[in-house]
Write a structure and sequence with these properties.
With 302 residues, the chain is mostly helical. It has 13 helices and 2 strands.
Length: 302
């Protein structure tokens, strides 16, 4: 078992528990205090700049134990160094060329299969549209039937910001795009590429299912979302970055919707004060206070 690292509090206690020898003033030797004063006069600024820095307290076991106790951040640190090397040595894609997308490279065989079989492409597009309808139906059901608006609020946040970002930077339609009349948006109308609303809405629905412990349904939605992910890459309906950010957007806006709901449940000082101010002036102050407390309880219950 590793020995516990000394804390500032334990160090402080150790210092003050020492027996005074006549030369200690406030836990610091008088000679050190005088020396510190001389250093200030000489321009040293008293203590060293990094004397109390965290890394000055690290020991060999602390450094070696980082990889053992925190492997994931260490992997991230290694990947940071790797991608720094890649970024500064990689040749940029020229403006005349189409964007390079690793997801397009990985799904090239499936793209060729769908390109040579239009009926299969139409079938998959129709199934994907059904899945979009399932997402929409579930999100609206949680609000209209179950009275839980968080997923609906999250979807509204998500699609609003998708519209802002999609309009701000309009990406070119990928070469080789395989559209279908039964795909969503229906009829191959123009759409924003960044980011994927299909994927983000699926994540929002899945997170809500997990909150109410609908584990099996959440796993089904996750599996369908992965298939949707692959299909959108194979048909060149989205770039890989659109889909990856779609996952992050679903998680982010679900969290923001939760914070919004919590903010609406917290009683504010204004509501409590208003309850007291608008109470019957003829009643004693205790009645006015009771009115304020009732206002607070109603605010918490909302």
């Amino acid at each position: 078992m590793d020995a516990p690292l000394p804390t500032p509090l334990s160090s402080l206690n150790h210092r003050h528990n020492q027996k005074p020898n006549g030369c200690i003033i406030d836990g610091v030797k008088a000679a050190d205090k005088m020396e510190g004063g001389d250093k200030k006069k000489k321009g040293y600024g008293g203590r060293g700049l990094f004397e109390n820095a965290s890394f000055m307290k690290w020991g060999t076991e602390d450094v070696l134990g980082v990889a053992r106790h925190h492997p994931i951040p260490c992997c991230f640190a290694a990947s940071l160094l790797m991608f720094m090397a890649v970024e500064y040595t990689l040749s940029m894609i020229p403006p005349s060329s189409e964007p390079f997308d690793l997801g397009f490279v990985a799904t090239r065989p499936l793209h060729r299969a769908l390109e040579s079989r239009p009926n299969l492409n139409t079938l998959l597009a129709g199934l994907n549209t059904v899945f979009v309808g399932m997402q929409t139906g579930y999100i609206l059901w949680t609000w209209l039937v179950e009275g839980r608006p968080r997923a609906t609020i999250s979807a509204l946040f998500m699609f609003t910001f998708r519209g802002i970002l999609g309009y701000s930077t309009q990406l070119p339609l990928p070469q080789g795009f395989l559209g279908s009349g039964v795909d969503f948006p229906v009829g191959n109308v123009s759409f924003f590429l960044f980011y994927s609303g299909h994927v983000a809405a699926s994540v929002i629905a899945s997170l809500d299912m997990r909150r109410v412990q609908r584990w099996e349904l959440a796993r089904i939605f996750d599996a369908l979302n992965v298939l949707q992910f692959v299909r959108l890459l194979a048909t060149r309906g989205h770039y890989t970055i659109d889909l990856a950010v779609g996952v992050g957007a679903g998680i982010l806006f679900d969290s923001l919707a939760g914070k919004y709901e919590e903010s609406r449940k917290t009683p504010t000082i204004i509501s409590i004060t208003n309850g007291a101010l608008f109470a019957d002036a003829k009643k004693p102050i205790w009645d006015a206070l009771n009115v304020s407390l009732k206002c607070a309880e109603k605010g918490v219950g909302r």
